[in-house]
Amino acid sequence: MSANIVLGVTGGIAAYKSLQVASMLTKLDHNVYTIMTEAATEFIKPITFHSLTHLPVESKLFSTTTSEVKHIGLADKADLFLIAPATANFIAKAAAGIADDLLTTVILATQAPIMIAPSMNVHMFENPVVQRNMLALEELGYKIITPEAGYLACGYTGQGRLPDPQRLVEEIKKELSQKDLQDKKVLITAGPTREAIDPVRFLTNYSSGKMGYALAKAASYRGAEVKLVSGPTELECPLGVDLIKIESAADMKKEVFKEADTADIIIMAAAVADYRPQVYSTQKIKKQSRDLSLDLERTADILTELGKKKKTSQLLIGFAAESENLLENAQQKLRKKQADYIIANEISDKNTAFGSDKNQVSILSEEGSTKLPLMEKDKLADKIFNYIIDAERK
Ligand code: CTP
Known about the structure:
This protein is of the alpha/beta class and 394 residues long. 35% of the residues lie in helices and 25% in strands. The protein folds into 2 domains: 4-176, Flavin prenyltransferase-like (Rossmann fold, 3-Layer(aba) Sandwich), CATH 3.40.50.1950; 185-393, CoaB-like (Rossmann fold), CATH 3.40.50. The strands form 6 sheets. An 8-stranded mixed beta sheet has the order 13-12-9-14-17-18-20-21, with helices on both faces. The protein has a 6-stranded parallel beta sheet with strand order 3-2-1-4-5-6, with helices on both faces. Strands 7-8 form a two-stranded antiparallel sheet. It is elongated and about 85 Å long. The two termini are 25 Å apart. Bound molecules: cytidine-5'-triphosphate.
């Protein structure tokens, strides 16, 4: 869905990052209207934003070339405001209700949500006056995007860095998402598990965790309180998600069962090891001239155990990774594990193999099965929630 986003840019060096934010939002099909303060135009020329967004860039409150009352037009048109970077001066004026330029006037006139991403020197950021002003804005319903710690352009190291453009875009995506999972508790597992053989070796699988993380992100953006129990992955924790890192299937089971009782929706997207070494060698196993065989024992099937104790108010969703007889095997898992839904995917297809950014799945329930087309995992995660929310409403 395309939205009208007003990007407010105030006079800080981090304004260069806002160019990328404007570009990324435009590529996502949003209309980005930029308002620059006079100080911001010292760092970046308005034409640069205009070239990226193809929409007007404003900085003056008054104009003699249009009859439109500029600040009211932009204030009414906006679905969302992002002020990035926001200087200490802007924050102080906004908190005091001062309207002495276009940006401070528009934000007083709008009813759209306003997100503020402060960026400044660490001592300025920590100054009690700035902290007080941010708190005041937060209490009034503005969303403050906390700056990151790191190297600052002023030469200091500390908190005050404007987050990366991608993170700011994610904040906007989250804000714009429909909140149809508000107040729901969603527990998701993701990634592979590692079953230790000795201090340097383990058994694992090719799961990247991408599908589980995409589901966690979708649920969080849709307003749910999300706990993500994840095996080792390279992925970043999605915004607003509580990440619980584990290694083995036994650790995963422990963490899942801590949260399972209070969850409204449980999704087992992890590729949990079915076997672990019967004996863990505390010393590194030395190489011998003869072959070595490893005795393995079964791990617990977490989904099956969840199915046995599932409450009627809970939704239990499993995955089925199959290399043959997809629907038949997935149907068996649905019944055997007493899940409400099984999301089945063919892992022998290179498009949907472990690690791929795309996936093609069928969703199975007692009612039958529905095949979804091949798509990016982020998009698929949303489709899966759409499907399940719709099916549960019927
Ligand atoms: N699962 C689980 N605990 C395990 C193994 C699997 O909770 N020890 C869950 C997975 O998270 C997934 C579902 O069960 O949601 C199916 O996993 P899958 O690996 O496809 O099937 P398995 O049950 O392991 O059966 P098989 O390996 O024989 O296909």
